[in-house]
Amino acid sequence: MSDWNTRTKLVHGGIRRSQYNEVSEAIFLTQGFVYNNAEQAEARFIETGPDEFIYARYGNPTVSMFEQRIAMLEGAEDAFATASGMAAVNGALTSLVKAGDHVVSAKALFGSCLHILENILSQFGVEVTFVDGTNLDEWRAAVRPDTKVCFFESMSNPTLEVIDIAGVSEIAHSVGATVVVDNVFSTPAFSEAIAQGADVVVYSATKHIDGQGRALGGVVLGKKDYIRGPLETYMKHTGGSMSPFNAWVMLKGMETLDLRVRAQADSALKIAEAVEGHPALRRAIYPGLKGHAQNDLVQRQLGGKGGTVLSLEVKGGKEAAFKFLNAMTIAVISNNLGDAKSIATHPATTTHQRLSDAQKDDLGIAPGLIRFSVGLEDTDDLIADITAALEASQA
Fold first, then answer.
1. Which of 286, 199, 217 shows the shortest CA–CA distance to 253?
2. Less CB within 10 Å around the terminal CB: N or C of the chain?
3. Is 198:68 a contact under the CB 8 Å cutoff?
4. Domain 257-393, CATH among 3.30.70.2120, 1.10.15.40, 3.40.50.970, 3.90.1150.10
5. How far apart are CA 158 and CA 372, in angstroms?
């Protein structure tokens, strides 16, 4: 199976069939499991094998299939599926640190990730230093002998900065720190974060893995001794595990993941090229554009694919941005991404609204910035819709 190519892994990886030999993966909607006798129950609680389960919060056959499939795709030894992407981020970070430890993080992050670092970890005595994630010199200056974790989004939300995974990993490993990468925008199809040096990779499976707006989920990937050690211990006692039904949804989503994401990325590049330089725009941000600051890194790190999301800053601030959003006829206004439907988001008033104006300015989240997640609609239709909305934004 390790020799299979990506699409084969996405369809067949991790399958475990019941005695009925079903084609589609079975949903084991059960919270617990029965033991043949008391001795078996005692033995199961001491040590479980690959086909032995105790309680759905600890593990489940359907969830295990999803974990094995995503681990095979990512090139990780193991994975733990979680209830949401933020459960994955929180579990990955919290399971690695204790009071008195030091974390270095990129400052360009999703609002909830910032909350965990700024508020939750700090209130329990963890010191956090924020850096410009694209500047390796800032990482070098920030890490210390007591640095335990370096954390960043491989492609930041919503300004789409791309961070050098190999470069940061080399710096972090020089002081013995663990590299945790939130890899959502890079997608499992394009990124090889573990091969590039990351120790732990986190996904919101709600995004491209499901990809059709149906279910919440997340996953943490890494070495087996970490996943089945500190992480599993933390997750099973704090209750952040994925439901069996949601795991089944993710398994079905993975079957078409590569096809969907590649089509969306190709469309995103065409849209970005079509609207770049439009008089209604202050800037069009897409890592696949040759003028993007990290485009050379995109070629090396992501195989030239700039992802499925672009950001557009319209002239005229919030008022113009709202005119743009309200003029669209195809894309929907929501705060998700990586969906089959194109989705437009105004980060300053939604996903990043809790940030101060100074923080928003520092991160480049301007009042006129719109995050546009490209779906599976016809590319020409999307270009026409976006162009008309840009014209309306200036009316």
1. 217
2. C
3. no
4. 3.90.1150.10
5. 9
Return the number of other C-beta atoms located less than 10 Å from residue 169's C-beta: 22
Contacts of 233 (CB under 8 A, 6+ apart): 95
| Biggest alpha carbon–alpha carbon distance for the chain | 75
- Average pLDDT on 290-311 reads 96
Instruction: State the CATH class of domain 6-255.
Output: alpha beta
Q: Are the C-beta atoms of residues 279 and 316 closer than 8 Å to each other?
A: no
Reported as a single tens digit per residue, the pLDDT across 197-249 is: 999 999 999 999 999 999 999 999 999 999 999 999 999 999 999 999 999 99
Domain boundaries of the chain, sorted by first residue: 6-255, 257-393
Report the pLDDT averaged over residues 50-59.
Answer: 87
The answer to whether 206 touches 215, Cβ cutoff 8 Å, is yes
Structure tokens at 75: 């090139």
Contact 385, 330 (CB under 8 A): yes
Distance CA 229, CA 68 (A): 17
> Average pLDDT, whole number, for the chain?
96
Helix (H, G, I), strand (E, B) or coil at 365: coil
The pLDDT-based confidence of 50 (bands split at 50, 70, 90) is confident
Helix ranges (DSSP H) in the chain: 6-12, 38-46, 61-74, 85-94, 111-115, 122-123, 136-142, 165-173, 187-190, 224-226, 232-238, 244-255, 257-275, 295-301, 317-327, 357-363, 379-393
Q: Cα-atom radius of gyration of the chain, to the nearest Å?
A: 21
pLDDT digits (tens, 9 = 90+) for 312-335: 999 999 999 999 999 999 999 999
Which pLDDT score is estimated for 52?
85
- Spatial distance between the Cα atoms of 152 and 171, rounded to a whole number of angstroms: 13
Kindly report, residue by residue over 356-376, the tens digit of the pLDDT. 999 999 999 999 999 999 999
pLDDT at residue 2 in the model: 73
- Cα 270 from Cα 266, distance rounded (Å): 7
CA distance 254 to 154: 21
| Other beta carbons within 10 Å of 264 | 28
Burial of 252: CB neighbours in 10 Å, binned 0-12, 13-18, 19+: middle
Asked if residue 287 has a cis previous peptide bond (ω within 30° of 0), the answer is no
